[in-house]
Amino acid sequence: MMPVVKKQVSSTVKPKLKGGIADKIRSLGFNNDDGIKINLYGQSGTGKTTLWATFPKPILVLLCSGGKNPGELRSIDTEEYRKTIHQLQVEGSDEIREAVDMVHQTTEYATVVLDHATGLQDMVMKNILGLDELPPQSSWGMATQQQWGQCALQMKELLRAILSLETNVVIVAQERAFQLPSETESELLMPFVASALSPSVTGWLNPAVDYICQTFKRPKTRQVSVTIRGKEVQQTVKEKGIEYCLRTGPDEVYTTKFRLPKGHKLPDVIVDPSYDKIMKLIQGKA
User: pTM of the full predicted structure?
Assistant: First the structure.
């Protein structure tokens, strides 16, 4: 007589045990009220500020870009945004912690923006080196390896605190080209572009957020049909003006990340990006 083999059936029943760790076990799922955690990076003038201004309001922006009146906010200086966007000009890393504690204690803000992380890193390093002013072009050649390690540790602590908020969180940064050794010594170094932070901080931030996108500009184009040797083909023709774009799809050089269920289509680029367009991609509706 052959032995009876019991078929294994997956079960969604919660553990029968009560108390302790069993009470913390729950079904797979995410709370939409927690917001999204996204890293936006790109060169100056490519639409980072215009993009995060479309996120749910009210918005609190933690400004770390230097100066008392950052010029990049002029692009969103409208009557509507003055009512829904609040700014805090950060003068020290302690103010970041105070702001995070304040947001934890209130439900006033739907989105918190750090603009930008590159400026915050400069601020942290300035404090470590005991400087009153930032050096020209943020040249930190005088910093030791130990001081860079101290800076990276503080940056990770600050970014972790911001990302812990139960709101939408946007980490803005300038962009930087990195070089990492290839798998074989005979090959050239393989460059990639990501947030302009130290390699240690960038390496920590990339997996800490759910989405990484790069902003860039490109000439406007359109597709036209032309007949060549009796065959109709499509050609790309340049038009006047430029398009503000958000790189979302996988790329060999530019760091991107979009956490989506398998089967959701993801375009390489979004033109005139906004929060609504990003959410449609996340929800698989685009």
Answer: 0.84
